[in-house]
Amino acid sequence: MMSEYHNYFITSLDLHTVDLEDFQYGGTNITGFKLVDEDNPGYTDVLETWRNPVLRATGKEPTLTTEAALLYDATRLFSRALTDLDRGQKIHIKSLSCDTEEPWPHGISLINYMRMINVKGLTGDIKFDHHGFRSDFKLKVLELTNDGLRESGEWNIHTGLNMTTNYSRANEEIIQSLKNKTLLATTLINAPYTMLKENHEELEGNEKYEGYCIDLLKEISKILGFRFLIKEVDDHKYGEKNDQGEWNGMIKELID
């Protein structure tokens, strides 16, 4: 379940807080999103403020969950709106009963201020549309690599998904992942691509085969540093799909 042939999309926005060291070397494709903006100058300040002696003693760096960041941003937005409202009109604070049906006289004004102002928070720019929903926010795309989680793109409501992956680096990582691996090469006898040598009955393994595909595979393996094992497909077919949508031949072996 955790190999290079498995792909996982994590819907939680707290993937960046999870220790994935046990999985980052297995080649499993793990992708997720992040709302917290760690590039915000205030992010480090908040972590330092919240750093406690227990975390410092263990040597672990504190992480900020999405819920905590949203609560922090909500508090800042409320404080900013209340301050701006107080500048525009004098707010008289008095004790209120939870049982009263009479609303706070400044409530509507405060909500309108919260919709109008723009605050740079730990989850990006905090803006609201006329319905009161969060707008103009961004989600960072995260991918797990051998070096840990890496930002590989960004999604926003205006332009959608924009991938910023360095494909040269990604290609190099793929090449490195092939080093010293043994790959199973499925084939069928078809001259001049794959043929049995005249004395194949006296030989074993890859030595029984010759042809263009075999020579090409040998050269590629030398360049990329992997080993391979040639296996003839059992039914000697390239692959056809039956009425049930199932494949046979080489395609079936590739799928399986």
Automatic annotation (TrEMBL):
- Know the name of this protein? Glutamate receptor, ionotropic kainate 1
- Could you tell me where this protein is found in the cell? Membrane
All residue ranges annotated as the Ionotropic glutamate receptor L-glutamate and glycine-binding domain in the record: 192-256
Question: Gene3D superfamilies under this entry?
Answer: 3.40.50.2300, Periplasmic binding protein-like II
Spell out the coiled coil positions from the record: none
Give the superkingdom in one word: Eukaryota
What GO annotations for molecular function exist for this entry?
ligand-gated monoatomic ion channel activity
Listed GO CC annotations: membrane
InterPro entries given in the database record: ANF_lig-bd_rcpt, Glu/Gly-bd, Ionotropic_Glu_rcpt, Peripla_BP_I
Can the keyword Membrane be found in this entry's annotation? Answer: yes
Pfam family membership, one = ANF_receptor
Keyword terms of this UniProt record: Glycoprotein, Ion channel, Ion transport, Ligand-gated ion channel, Membrane, Receptor, Transmembrane, Transmembrane helix, Transport
Mind telling me which PANTHER family this protein's record contains? Answer: IONOTROPIC GLUTAMATE RECEPTOR (PTHR18966)
Query: How the protein sits in the membrane?
Result: Multi-pass membrane protein
Q: Which organism is it from?
A: Stegodyphus mimosarum
- This protein's major location comes to membrane
